[in-house]
Specification:
The structure is a single chain. This protein is of the alpha/beta class. The chain has one domain (about 35-170): Double Stranded RNA Binding Domain (2-Layer Sandwich). It is about 35% helix and about 35% strand. The protein contains 3 helices and 7 strands, in the order H-E-E-E-H-E-E-E-E-H.
Length: about 170
């Protein structure tokens, strides 16, 4: 019985040893410096020439949700150990697949976000980058009919890109 307990203790010790390391690691792939405890994400205003009224708040909230749910960082209003800010710089739709009779078969909704990221503990990780993603939709559908779904899909891709560049370091 004692040998069995010792084996269990040894096994648990090995697991704990391998799970601990230099920094915080999550199963999402996020690698965050151990001293970073907080993140601040400022409101991303919509400065695009074509403004979708709900996009700014929807994007900002979804970005905050991603960091809160996928990391151990605590969201603070300002001056976090890690900081994200920026603005929506582009929101446009245009035809992309022209048929033989010069009509569009597909239209493309594109959203572009400018992001500034600051890591208080490692300036080499700081960046200012533009992220752009799009989704196509049939030209026989009105944008207003598919807009909510398209924005949700595009936001997910943009947020994954921002998350990956800021804390996964790709």
């Amino acid at each position: 019985m004692i040998i069995k307990i010792n084996k269990i203790i040894f096994f648990l010790s090995v697991i704990i040893f391998f799970l601990s390391g230099c920094g915080i690691y999550s199963f999402t792939g996020a690698s965050i410096p151990p001293e970073a405890k907080t993140i601040s994400i400022q409101h991303f205003p919509n400065n695009a020439s074509l403004v979708e009224p709900t996009l700014s708040q929807f994007f900002t909230d979804a970005l905050k949700d991603k960091f809160v749910s996928q990391t151990t960082l605590i969201l603070v209003k300002k001056n976090g150990d890690l900081r994200l800010e920026g603005e929506i710089t582009g929101y446009s739709t245009k035809p992309v697949a022209i048929t033989g009779d010069q009509t569009a078969a597909l239209n493309r909704l594109t959203i572009t976000i400018m992001v500034r990221y600051v890591n208080s503990f490692d300036e080499t990780k700081n960046f200012e980058s533009s992220f752009s993603r799009y989704e196509d939709y049939p030209s026989n559908k009105n944008l207003s009919a598919v807009q909510e779904t398209l924005i949700t899909q595009i936001n997910e891709m943009l947020i994954d890109d921002i998350f990956n560049k800021s804390v996964v370091n790709w």
